[in-house]
Write a structure and sequence with these properties.
Elements: H1 5-30, H2 33-44, E1 52-54, E2 59-61, H3 89-92, H4 95-98, H5 101-104, H6 113-116, H7 137-140, H8 157-168, H9 193-196, H10 199-207, H11 209-212, H12 225-238, H13 270-273, H14 280-290, E3 298-299, E4 302-303, H15 319-327, H16 329-332, H17 345-356, H18 379-385, H19 397-411, H20 455-464, H21 485-496, H22 517-527, H23 550-553, H24 556-564, H25 586-600, E5 612-614, H26 616-629, E6 637-638, E7 641-642, H27 652-655, H28 658-666, H29 668-671, H30 684-694, E8 703-705
Parallel strand pairs: 5-8
Antiparallel strand pairs: 1-2, 3-4, 6-7
Helix pairs in contact: 8-21, 10-12, 12-19, 14-17, 15-17, 20-21, 22-25, 24-25, 26-30
Length: about 700
């Protein structure tokens, strides 16, 4: 089809217009305004090496030659090296003073990427990648062993988690580290293990703890069946059990006879397992839930992990031991963290029956069972299997077994976590001082060839799978903790911080002081797991009263006496659980009182309030209002008389602050929203009279009653 003249003209105009637009777009792109300023900036900035001279350490740092925009927020999403530094680290760590290699390692004076990152032969500090850079926080900000495990350090979450794991898993029990001491044992005492556990369970536990308890902290040792047999011999009969070869100590744990507490509990009879004989199991289950046991222990995933998991405890312990332990934990182990629950004999019987019913089903028809090391099925070994040991004569095979087991318990480092009567605590692994400064040529990879040979890689393998290092010549003694990738990374981050390189004293700053009230208080609360039952701010349990504003409410001198010797305040209708007796020292009690004052915003040392003077008539008016008009005695008891719905009021004046009582009477729900106490509309004189009466109730009265002239 032939175009007309008009169509040709229109087409030519369109093409010309399109050409002009394209040329304009290209010119606009070429001639952007910012290019002018960029050209001027480049002309003003000649190519040169940028360097920071660190006077305190006497080093040159040239990292900013390439990483020149680390303090410019506009480059936050750019690739390296033209990228903003992550986080807000530079706010407190100016490059001009600290440089880069102090935290990141590498070779600060180098000018090529490979050399600057330290990936060259004979350079001992290659660039720390990812979270491993947080290990450098430990150079300038040391963490004291006395700090509570729940400390926080902004920007160093992996480093703190690694430090927490290092202490939680008691690495110091085997490895020496300057400035750290072996703490109190973190695992149960083995001195009387023969009284506590049965041999079948012990053998299975030694073979693989996580097969019994998936979240067990106890690592898996590379033990042969023969070694397990030797160790079981020693622990069941030679580590200080009541049937030991020595005279047993005077203790309720070593008295024979048929205690009424053991009736229906020993071994848990079939009738008990079905809930017979008074329904021990149902009552025991109710008591375990209501007395606060799950504030520390867990059963089938419910509860806390502070204390041993009770899920399969019936497969582990002996019933008579359990009853006696519940009655008086410190008679078995004076250093146990388990407090005295002040539970009646009947309740103990029910609790023990329920716990003994919690047993793990044996999936193996004929599970492998390590034979006793030597002697075969002798009468002596039969007794040992049952947890009994007659006196041994010199030369007896059983004595040899026990000596061999004792040596294994010592050599495997068991005493780093467990206490035994006849074995002292001792280090049995290499010291950790300077570990983060080790050169690659100082560590052995064994037959491992498929990994990058760096210190961080070696540590990750050592923590995650220590047996990989075993060869015909290298014995891998470190047990397997079963750490996840995340936990391993955190622990290695901390271990990399253990260096022997001096840091200028001007850089060192303690950020968390263990001697401050907050740190000391947290340590005591953590040691006794107070937040397993109580709430303090956001964290904590809901078994016992909230302690967030405790010192606005309680008198310090009363709280001191209460913590030294706890007693029940609230009736069972409100709270079944009772405060157990932790046998706290005066020092620890003072620390707790000071800490609760700190978190409550109250002064410490505290100020005693001035006694208010009232007349006998004032007190009588208040008593009449309390007992008759408002019927407070229908819910509260005074001197053994009254209801059992609300807390005891017999010692109110000695226990509670007047100011808090005033606020409580005006509006209970403003302090505790879920409380059942009604809100009364008191007249001013009624309110004052009730306050005066309540302040007369107690050993230490905070009113002064005027005597008649």
């Amino acid at each position: 089809m032939k175009l007309t003249r008009n169509q040709l003209i229109l087409n030519a105009v369109f093409c010309l217009t399109l050409l002009i637009v394209i040329i304009w777009a290209l010119y606009a792109e070429y001639n952007r305004p910012w290019k002018k300023y960029r050209k001027e900036a480049v002309q003003d900035e000649s190519l040169k090496i940028r360097q920071v001279w660190l006077r305190d350490s006497g080093e040159a740092d040239r990292c900013i030659t390439c990483h020149g925009v680390i303090d410019n927020p506009d480059f936050n999403n750019n690739p390296q090296p033209h990228r903003t530094h992550s986080g807000n680290y530079l706010k407190h760590h100016k490059v001009e003073r600290f440089g880069c290699v102090l935290c990141h390692d590498g070779q600060g004076v180098a000018l090529t990427v490979k050399a600057a990152h330290g990936y060259v032969e004979n350079w001992t500090k290659p660039l720390l990648k990812g979270s491993f850079a947080q290990s450098s926080c430990g150079k300038c900000h040391p963490l004291n062993q006395a700090l509570p495990l729940n400390v926080e350090l902004n920007g160093a979450s992996k480093f703190i988690e690694g430090w927490r794991l290092f202490n939680e898993y008691n690495c110091i029990g085997c490895h020496k580290l300057r400035g750290n001491e072996i703490p109190g044992r973190i695992a149960p005492s083995l001195t009387l293990a023969g009284n506590k556990v049965n041999r079948d369970w012990l053998v299975r536990w030694l073979r693989n703890p996580k097969a019994y308890l998936p979240n067990a902290k106890m690592p898996r040792f590379n033990l042969s069946d023969e070694e397990i047999g030797y160790m079981a011999d020693y622990l069941m009969g030679g580590a200080g059990s009541s049937n030991n070869f020595k005279n047993p100590p005077a203790s309720p744990f070593f008295k024979g006879g048929n205690s009424p507490l053991l009736r229906g509990v020993r071994g848990v009879s079939p009738s008990l397992e079905k809930g017979g004989e008074g329904g021990f199991l149902d009552e025991g289950q109710t008591l375990v839930a209501s007395l606060g046991c799950l504030g520390c222990h867990s059963i089938n995933g419910a509860g806390n992990s502070f204390a041993p998991d009770l899920t399969n405890i019936g497969s582990k312990v002996n019933a008579d031991w359990l009853v006696r332990f519940l009655k008086n934990p410190k008679a078995y182990d004076p250093k146990t963290a388990m407090p005295d629950m002040k539970t009646s004999g009947e309740d103990i019987q029910s609790i023990a029956a329920y716990l003994m019913s919690l047993k793990k089903e044996k999936k193996e028809k004929n599970p492998p069972f390590p034979p006793l090391a030597k002697g075969g099925n002798t009468p002596l070994n039969t007794l040992l299997i049952e947890g009994k040991s007659p006196p041994l004569k010199k030369g007896d095979v059983g004595g040899f077994n026990i000596d061999k087991g004792k040596k294994l318990v010592r050599d495997k480092g068991c005493t780093g976590c467990h206490e035994t009567e006849d074995l002292p605590a001792g280090y049995d692994a290499p010291p950790l001082d300077g570990l983060g400064s080790k050169r690659v040529d100082e560590i052995a990879f064994g037959n491992i060839t498929d990994v990058e040979k760096t210190l961080s890689t070696w540590l990750m393998l050592k923590v995650r799978d220590p047996q990989r290092f075993a060869t015909e010549k290298i014995i891998a003694r470190m047990p397997d903790y079963g750490f996840s990738e995340e936990k391993s990374e955190a622990l290695v981050t901390f271990l990399l911080s253990v260096r022997n390189e001096p840091v200028p004293p001007q850089y060192v700053k303690t950020l968390i002081d263990p001697d401050k009230a907050g740190a000391r208080g947290k340590s005591v609360l953590e040691k006794h797991n107070c937040l397993g039952c109580h709430k303090l701010g956001d964290p904590g349990g809901n078994i016992a009263p909230d302690l967030s504003g405790e010192m606005k409410k309680s008198r310090p001198e009363w709280l001191f006496a209460f913590l030294k010797s706890p007693f029940k305040i609230r009736p069972e209708q409100i709270l079944k659980a009772k405060m157990p007796d932790f046998n706290l020292s005066d020092k620890d009690v003072n620390v707790v009182v000071e800490y609760l004052a700190f978190v409550s915003g109250e002064p410490y040392p505290y100020n005693f309030e001035v006694k208010k003077e009232i007349t006998p008539e004032d007190a009588q008016d208040g008593e009449k209002l309390y007992k008759e008009i408002f019927a407070c005695a229908a819910c509260h008891r005074v001197d053994g008389k009254g209801g059992e719905v609300g807390p005891e009021h017999t010692d109110t004046a000695s226990r509670l602050n007047r100011k808090w009582i005033e606020q409580w009477l005006k509006d209970p729900q403003a302090i505790q929203p879920e409380v059942r106490m009604p809100r009364f509309k008191f007249k001013d004189w009624e309110y004052e009279a009730l306050m005066n009466y309540l302040m007369t109730l107690g050993k230490y009265r905070f009113v002064k009653v005027k005597q008649a002239d």
